[in-house]
Design goal:
Elements: H1 6-21, H2 29-32, E1 38-41, E2 46-49, H3 56-66, H4 75-79, H5 90-96, E3 100-105, H6 108-121, H7 139-151, E4 176-179, H8 183-195, H9 209-212, H10 225-228, H11 231-240, H12 242-248
Parallel strand pairs: 2-3, 3-4
Antiparallel strand pairs: 1-2
Helix pairs in contact: 6-7, 7-11
Length: 256
């Protein structure tokens, strides 16, 4: 018998997941099997849908600590340790059906500005140099960036996708859809429910210390909203992230 290639194994795994294991559950298998989309914590019986620029690295670091994975110097180091669906066997994927699921979301106004400041406006990440507003961390640069995002929605880095487009299943299907700004209140009872572990909500009030050590990683976008948002930027974010406002329950009024 000829050996089965890794690519063939993956295709079989994706096909069985879509047609059998998670059939009828509305899974987006492209997101589910994307390397950076889902982190699985068997110790917590938890599947965590990672949403870029919504605190996902910090949350993974906190969960890794709860699971006893040890310490990591950078969020990238942790990524190599995380279990994800593409690395799981078919029996493990079947077991995943009984796991709790979590996604953490963020106010679209804050998230859009944070993504711009982190990846584009600072002008320090060369692979984003092709975006309008690169190295122009001011309101004009932000508007130029948003206009490009609005005009090229299908050809964007995932940091700039709507949050709902990054989810591997429908919003209402998650065990918990937590808001980044409410983590200290929402995560401790959820963790206690799924694992029996008591955690202090205070730790979720700020990014993980490993994240805070990363230069330019913390953008403090919430404190800069009034500085960067004029009528044009507000209108563009409303249009680009229309589905996020509708499905995640955030107000599309910047002052709301």
């Amino acid at each position: 018998m000829l050996p089965v290639s890794e690519a063939t194994r993956r295709r079989i795994k994706v096909s069985l997941s879509k047609r059998v294991i998670f059939a009828g559950q509305g899974y987006n298998t492209k997101n589910f099997f994307h390397r950076d989309s889902v982190a699985v914590f068997p110790e917590l019986k938890l599947s965590f849908n990672r949403i870029k620029k919504s605190g996902n690295s910090s949350i993974c670091l906190y969960f890794a600590k709860l699971c006893g994975y040890g310490d990591f110097d950078t969020p990238e180091d942790l990524k190599d340790r995380l279990l994800r669906p593409g690395l799981m066997s078919l029996p493990q994927l079947v077991e995943l059906r009984s796991y709790h699921s979590l996604v953490v979301v963020r106010d679209p106004f804050e998230r859009a500005l944070s993504a711009f400041l982190d990846k584009v406006g600072g002008g320090v990440v060369p692979r984003f140099a092709g975006y309008a507003g690169y190295g122009q961390a001011n309101p004009d640069g932000f508007v130029h960036f948003l206009r490009q995002v609005a005009e090229n929605r299908e050809d964007l880095n995932r940091h700039f996708w709507p949050q709902t487009r990054l989810m591997y299943k429908p919003v209402k299907s998650f065990s918990l859809v937590a808001r980044l700004e409410n983590l200290p209140e929402e995560l401790p009872p959820f963790i206690r429910k799924i694992s029996g572990i008591q955690v202090d909500g205070e730790s979720f009030k700020s990014p993980h210390p490993v994240e805070r050590r990363q230069k330019n990683k913390i953008t403090a976008a919430k404190e800069k909203l009034n500085m960067f948002y004029g009528p044009a930027a507000v209108d563009l974010v409303r249009r680009i992230y229309r589905d996020d406002f509708a499905q995640l329950g955030y107000s599309n009024d910047l002052t709301g």
